[in-house]
Each structure stands twice: as C-alpha cells, then as structure tokens.
C-alpha cells in the first residue's frame, strides 16, 4: 500500500510556525577531511569554496566546504581534540565511520525557529548565538534529531562571506568541470531503528511543522528476502524533504538492518542530489571512479511499456543502468551509488525530475534487489 498524505505545497507558508529557506549544508565527520575534499572535488565535480583549520587559527579541527550550485557539503576531521566538540567528533568517527553529523537548515530567524522547536519538545544542542567577522553576522542554533544527528538552524541573511565566520575563501582543489554534475540537495534519508519511524515522523510534524508527504509500506518496499517501511516528511514548500526508513520483519537482513549494524545506530543513509542532466553526470562520475549499483538488463526490457517516453532513450538508460519512474505528475530518472566508504553505510542518489515529486516507487523492488546483491557479496544479507 502506498498513500499520499495531506500535503498542498505552499498553502500553509504564510502561517508556518517554522519557516525554512532550504538546506544550508550537509556536514560530515570524517577521518581525513583533506582527502574527502579531494574525492568529492574529483569524483562529484564539487568546488572547494571555504576552509577552516590551523592556517586560519583553528587548532582542533580542519573543515573543507565544497559546493555545487546550491548544494553545500562540509567535511570536518579532528586534528587534536581539546574541547568537548573535538572529542565528540573523534569519538563519532571511531564509532560510526565517516558519516553525516548535521543536516543544517537555513531559516529566516534562527532564534524564533529554535524557540518554537524547544517549545514543542525538541532537545537543545546549541542555544542561539551570533558569530561575526568582516563579512557580517550569522545567527546559529542547533537541535537534536535521530541518533547523533543534529539540525543546525542557520540565519545568514546578514552575511556575505564564503561560508561562516572563522572560514576563509579557498581555491578549487582541481579544475572544476565545465558543467556541474548537480545543482541542489533534493532530499536526505534517515535510517532509524525498528519501531521508531513513527516516533521521528511525529517529531518533525510537531517540532518543525513538517507535513507527511508520502509513505511506503508492505509490498511497495519489499523483496523476496527483505523489507522496510518509509515515510517522507517535508516543509510546506518542499524545499526540505526527509524520508525516514525503518526495517521490517523479513526472511533476511534488510539494507536498513545492515546500515544500523555497521553505523552503530540511527543516522543519515543517503543524500539525493538533483541534476539537470543525469546522463552527463553519471558518465563523468563513472569516469572519475564513482561506483553505481548495477541493474539487470531485464529491468529495461519492459520499462518503456509503463514509464512511457522520457528525455533519455531506453538504450541509454540501459547502458548507464539509470532507473526511471512515472507517476501522475510526471517522471523521474535516478541512480544510486554504492557506499562511498568502506563501511556499507552512506551512499548517494542522483535524481533528475520532470514533474514527478515522487521517490521512485516503481523502482523499489529493482533497487532493493540490487542492494541485496551487494549485501550478499559482503556477506551481510
């Protein structure tokens, strides 16, 4: 059963108690930020735009800020912990491996957003405060969400620097591609423990005023061996979308079970990146060494019968192993990378939308079977 729940984009914006402008940054804690920055520059076509570290007076950590259009990633590693923050980062990487610690959200008023969230029961991580430099002032606050993930609330309306105070502009690590591979963060997916999905859906409903966009349960999201359940929450303008997954009881270990085991608890499973040309992006990323999930040729034998005509010919989709799906609003093209670190945890999705605001429901079975093949190769199915 698939259900599209109450959601009329934009209608509640004027009365929104927790308005957002969009995703500000996806922040990763990693073992070696310099090497991560190089990988995402060369393999994902991102551009280094800002840096913070010993050369800028920060002795504890090194942080590299990369951008592609409106998408921003921050990679931080510990040099020598000297504060609670540095100790937390080092412990997080040791326990979880490289992963997302912060889904930062840009808001028009960080103080108001924080006060509303705390008033609705959110747990405070950092109280509202100002940070300043010659480029202006940024107001920051942070609340906790699933696992050790947080949402930093960022009001940068009074700031024109490269990222945040304490960071300096940086030159690209490699020559940026002539055409960016993606231009925005489409959605960020969280995995939570069995029985906790509805708890966190309720958190976003209550604490941030997000509404339930879609849900996928039962046969929608199951194979012969494994199953999971998923619900999608989003802000009123659909600029910030957070699908939330939990495992379901099945014959064998699901991809969510595998993630929870190797990540050591709940966390961000994958980040979907919006592209205007998935064919060019996938070709370039493959050439740079990015590994994508494989899809059997049989998937494409009948694809045209139900997905209809798309911008990309079926033969090209087959060649590049790109998936397609259509709903009442249009169609989308998507493909998923394999995990981008040694642990089978965080991965990425490339998605090209043509009207559809869905998440590839028609591809769930093919996708999960592809993931199961990788799980079996790792001995984790």
Structure write-up:
By secondary structure, the protein is α+β, with helices and mostly antiparallel strands. It folds into two domains: 22-169, 2,3-Dihydroxybiphenyl 1,2-Dioxygenase, domain 1, CATH 3.10.180.10; 184-378, Roll (2,3-Dihydroxybiphenyl 1,2-Dioxygenase, domain 1), CATH 3.10.180.10. It contains ten helices and 18 strands. It has helices at 33-43, 84-96, 110-119, 197-207, 255-263, 278-287, 298-301, 303-307, 314-320, 364-378; strands spanning 2-4, 22-29, 47-52, 61-68, 71-78, 99-106, 124-133, 136-144, 150-159, 168-169, 184-191, 211-216, 227-234, 241-248, 267-274, 323-327, 330-336, 347-354. The strands form two sheets. A nine-stranded mixed β-sheet has the order 1-12-13-14-11-15-18-17-16. It has a nine-stranded mixed β-sheet with strand order 7-8-9-6-2-5-4-3-10. Strand 8 and strand 9 (150-159) form a beta hairpin. It is globular and about 60 Å long. The two termini are 25 Å apart. The model is unreliable at 1-14 (pLDDT under 50). Belongs to the 4HPPD family. Its EC number is 1.13.11.27. InterPro entries: 4OHPhenylPyrv_dOase, 4OHPhenylPyrv_dOase_C, 4OHPhenylPyrv_dOase_N, Glyas_Bleomycin-R_OHBP_Dase, Glyas_Fos-R_dOase_dom, VOC_core. This is 4-hydroxyphenylpyruvate dioxygenase. GO terms for molecular function: 4-hydroxyphenylpyruvate dioxygenase activity; metal ion binding.
CATH architecture of the largest domain: Roll
Runs with pLDDT <50, length 5+? 1-14
Give the biggest beta sheet: 9 strands, mixed
The CATH first-level class of the largest domain comes to Alpha Beta
Helix content: 10-25%
Number of E-type strands: 18
Domain VOC: 22-156, 184-338
Binding site for Fe cation: 187, 270, 349
Family: Belongs to the 4HPPD family.
Keywords: Dioxygenase, Iron, Metal-binding, Oxidoreductase, Pyruvate, Repeat
């Amino acid at each position: 059963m698939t259900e599209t729940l109450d959601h009329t984009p934009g209608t509640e914006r004027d009365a929104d108690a927790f308005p957002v402008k969009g995703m500000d940054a996806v922040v990763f804690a990693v073992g070696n930020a310099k090497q991560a920055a190089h990988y995402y520059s060369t393999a994902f076509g991102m551009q280094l735009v800002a840096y913070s570290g010993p050369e800028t007076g920060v002795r504890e950590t090194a942080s590299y800020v990369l951008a592609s259009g409106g998408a921003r990633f921050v990679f931080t590693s510990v040099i020598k912990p000297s504060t609670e923050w540095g100790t937390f980062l080092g412990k997080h990487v040791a326990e979880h491996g490289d992963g997302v610690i912060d889904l930062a959200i840009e808001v028009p008023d960080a103080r108001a957003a924080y006060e509303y969230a705390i008033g609705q029961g959110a747990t405070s991580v950092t109280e509202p405060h100002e940070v300043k430099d010659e480029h202006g002032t940024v107001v920051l606050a942070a609340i906790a969400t699933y696992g050790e993930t947080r949402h930093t609330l960022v009001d940068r309306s009074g700031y024109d620097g490269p990222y945040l105070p304490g960071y300096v502009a940086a030159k690209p690590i490699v020559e940026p591609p002539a055409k960016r591979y993606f231009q925005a963060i489409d959605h960020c997916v969280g995995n939570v423990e069995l029985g906790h999905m509805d708890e966190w859906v309720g958190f976003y409903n209550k604490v941030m005023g997000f509404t339930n966009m879609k849900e996928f349960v039962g046969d929608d999201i199951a194979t012969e061996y494994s199953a999971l359940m998923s619900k999608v929450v989003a802000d009123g303008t659909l600029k910030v979308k957070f699908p939330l997954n939990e495992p379901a009881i099945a014959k064998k270990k699901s991809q969510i079970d595998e993630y929870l085991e190797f990540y050591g608890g709940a966390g961000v499973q994958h980040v979907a990146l919006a592209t205007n040309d998935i064919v060019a992006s996938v070709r370039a990323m493959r050439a740079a060494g990015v590994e994508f999930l494989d899809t059997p040729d049989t998937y494409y034998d009948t694809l045209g019968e139900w997905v209809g005509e798309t911008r990309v010919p079926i033969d090209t989709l087959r060649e590049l192993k790109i998936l397609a799906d259509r709903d009442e609003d249009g169609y989308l093209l998507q493909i998923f990378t394999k995990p981008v670190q040694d642990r089978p945890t965080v991965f990425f999705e490339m998605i090209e939308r043509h009207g559809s605001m869905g998440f590839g429901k028609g591809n769930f079975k093919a996708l999960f079977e592809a993931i199961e093949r990788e799980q079996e190769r790792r001995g984790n199915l």
